[in-house]
Amino acid sequence: MQEIIIEIISSYGYLGVFLLIAIENLFPPIPSEVILAFGGFMTTYTAMTVWGVILSSTAGSVAGALILYTIGRGLNAQRLESLFNSKAAQALRLRHEDVRRAGKWFNKHGNRAVFLCRFIPIVRSLVSIPAGMANMKLPVFLPLTILGTLIWNTVLVYLGRLAGEAWEIVVSYLDLYSLITLVAFVLIGLAAAAIFIKRRFLPRN
Question: How many angstroms separate the CA atoms of 36 and 125, rounded?
């Protein structure tokens, strides 16, 4: 994967950065760290500039986020609630109020979630979907997405430039950060699942 990313950026420059980052938003396993750090490194020996890489990557991120946001708008709360009438949902003890409760939480904390999640691997892409599902207004979603993405991209591109030929070291540290974050989310997910099972399936004394 890394070799393909390097080849695309080397061949297509800013356009390659834009397309790769846009695709990375739709398929989070693609490592944006490699794209941004290598893009920063390329500014040390090609005509590409730091701000050119930052702006093209930010444009790609926003394009991908808007696609996911649009998908979220199609998966609105009403449609999700209708799915809860299925036998599978009933077997899992899912209730209509779960959707409403999640919607209320996002309406209350959504602004911070959309901004802060831009600094968390994998989640920074997927947060656009619940934003769309919660019908977050585009004039609110867009500036938060642009600002959070701009900060993240700026840091990584500059780190890649400062590291120079050692840009892969930056990627290795970011991989560690991603791994720690993933483990944390898995633990949180397991804890949430345990609480859900206890409340919905186990008899109360």
Answer: 15
Phi, psi of 24, rounded to the nearest 5 degrees: -60, -35
Amino acid at site 77 = A
Question: Does a structural domain hold residue 110?
Answer: yes
Residue range of the domain that includes 120: 2-200
CA distance 173 to 10: 23
Predicted TM-score (pTM) of this structure: 0.77
For residue 40, count CB atoms less than 10 angstroms from its CB and return exposed for 0-12, middle for 13-18, buried for 19 or more.
buried
Compute the distance between CA of residue 61 and CA of residue 57 in angstroms, rounded to an integer: 6
- pLDDT tens digits for range 146-186: 999 999 999 999 999 998 888 888 888 877 877 787 787 68
Amino acid at 55: L
CA nearest to 91, candidates 197, 191, 189, 194:
197
> Cα separation of 90 and 83, whole Å?
10
Q: Give the separation between CA 53 and CA 38, rounded to whole angstroms.
A: 10
Residues, the chain = 205
Backbone phi, then psi, for 76, in 5-degree steps?
-75, 170
List, for residues 23-82, the tens digit of each pLDDT value.
988 886 677 888 899 899 999 988 899 999 999 999 999 999 999 899 888 876 566 556
CA distance 155 to 15: 20
Total domains in the chain come to: 1
Query: Does residue 205 lie in a domain region?
Result: no
* Residue 108 maps to a domain: yes
